[in-house]
């Protein structure tokens, strides 16, 4: 993993055991990755501030660091799910590709910041030397994963990328994100013939950049299940509340599901059944994009939710079922957050087990369950459901 030779690194990553006869239902998950993305150095400090107060002997790594991705790669290479994984080498995006989602002025700002040695984009978001190249790799790798599906080379792709992207808006970065990897892939799908794309974002934070990018569109159904955190400043003006429903012809196609802290497996499952599934059923997309962040896990330092491996596995199964029913199985998975270095990898494994519709868990949960009480979450979800059905036109259609 630490080889100095990029060619050797890529060869190492692409090697994989021969699949052990996965069922026709299971398919393969085509994972797109490039080790160059590990070179994004977010530094050390007090959590994600980059600050050294001068009185601490041990400064922790920024939560969005390469260790988290190394463990995700290794669990997919050596964990029980490895026979069902096919590895593909990522590539950098071209500037022209970025302009399908981002404003020219913003891209110019990032290029200039890179040329000058880096820049603090906003709180906790550092474009350091080498970061721009990693951002280009993340964007291009995600586009390659989508193209793989569009070209009919495989039905399920997973873009294992960093820096993350779903907070990046058309004209500004935010929340550790520079380029909106998922948003670029959605626009690519639309530009290459897809009529409707459904985006389900389960990262613990509101996917505000992706939502903003398609806020006026009825071609993209953007659903975000997130912690009820609200806005965190000028870089993240959106609040992720239920009344941020889209605008113009896009009204009703941006559905936010802000969940109470500690919602847990049963609460997320209830939200999926009561809110996500009915909306997707009515929208009938051509392709689905599952935006994953394991920061909604029970032990993540950046979230306050209580999902365990079982919860992630159930979400994966639900999304696969929707993709099979409406999209001929076509599903792109895009990596976002997830900051517990070990548990994030385990939860990723569980998500992919769910997507693969594997009958019994391949990997047990090493930390097990966090106590949860779904009663309050269910009340909140029922309230959101009532609001959406009475406000969103396409959800009222019989």
UniProtKB/TrEMBL annotation:
Instruction: Spell out the Polar residues composition-biased ranges.
Output: 1-16
Q: Which GO terms describe its molecular function?
A: hydrolase activity; metal ion binding
Q: Which cofactor does it need?
A: Zn(2+)
The annotated region (Disordered) lies at 1-23
Q: Does the keyword Oxidoreductase apply?
A: no
- Histone deacetylase domain residues: 62-353
Q: Which UniProt keywords apply?
A: Chromatin regulator, Hydrolase, Metal-binding, Repressor, Zinc
User: What are the recorded Gene Ontology BP terms?
Assistant: chromatin organization
Please state which protein family the record places this protein in: Belongs to the histone deacetylase family.
What is the protein name given in its UniProt record? Answer: Histone deacetylase domain-containing protein
């Amino acid at each position: 993993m630490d080889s100095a030779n990029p060619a050797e690194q890529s060869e190492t990553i692409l090697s994989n055991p021969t699949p052990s006869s996965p069922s026709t239902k299971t398919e393969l998950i085509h994972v797109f990755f490039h080790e160059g993305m590990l070179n994004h150095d977010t530094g050390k400090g007090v959590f994600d501030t980059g600050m050294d107060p001068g009185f601490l002997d041990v400064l922790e790594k920024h939560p969005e660091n390469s260790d988290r991705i190394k463990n995700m790669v290794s669990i997919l290479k050596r964990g029980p799910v490895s026979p069902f994984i096919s590895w593909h080498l990522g590539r950098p995006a071209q500037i022209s590709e970025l302009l399908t989602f981002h404003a020219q002025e913003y891209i110019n700002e990032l290029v200039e910041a890179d040329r000058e040695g880096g820049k603090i984009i906003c709180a906790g978001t550092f474009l350091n030397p080498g970061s721009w190249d990693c951002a280009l790799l993340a964007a291009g790798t995600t586009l390659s994963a989508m193209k793989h599906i569009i070209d009919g080379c495989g039905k399920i792709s997973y873009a294992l990328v960093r820096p993350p992207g779903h907070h990046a808006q058309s004209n500004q970065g935010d929340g550790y994100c520079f380029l909106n990897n998922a948003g670029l892939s959605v626009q690519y799908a639309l530009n290459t013939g897809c009529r409707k794309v459904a985006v389900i974002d389960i990262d613990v934070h509101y996917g505000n950049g992706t939502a903003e990018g398609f806020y006026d569109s009825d071609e993209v159904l953007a659903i975000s299940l997130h912690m009820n955190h609200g806005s965190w400043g000028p870089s993240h003006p959106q609040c992720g509340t239920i009344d941020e429903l889209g605008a113009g012809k896009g009204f009703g196609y941006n559905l936010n599901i802000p969940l109470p802290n500690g919602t847990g497996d049963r609460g997320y499952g209830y939200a999926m059944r009561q809110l996500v599934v009915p909306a997707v059923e009515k929208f009938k997309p051509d392709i689905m994009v599952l935006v994953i962040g394991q920061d909604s896990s029970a032990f993540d330092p950046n979230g306050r939710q209580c999902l365990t491996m079982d919860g992630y596995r159930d979400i994966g199964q639900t999304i696969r079922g929707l993709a099979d029913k409406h999209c001929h199985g076509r599903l792109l998975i895009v990596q976002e957050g997830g900051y517990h270095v070990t548990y994030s990898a385990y939860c990723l494994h569980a998500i992919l087990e769910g997507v693969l519709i594997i009958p019994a868990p391949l990997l047990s949960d090493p930390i097990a369950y966090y106590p949860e009480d779904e009663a309050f979450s269910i009340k909140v979800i029922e309230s959101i459901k009532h609001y959406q059905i009475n406000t969103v036109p396409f959800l009222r259609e019989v």
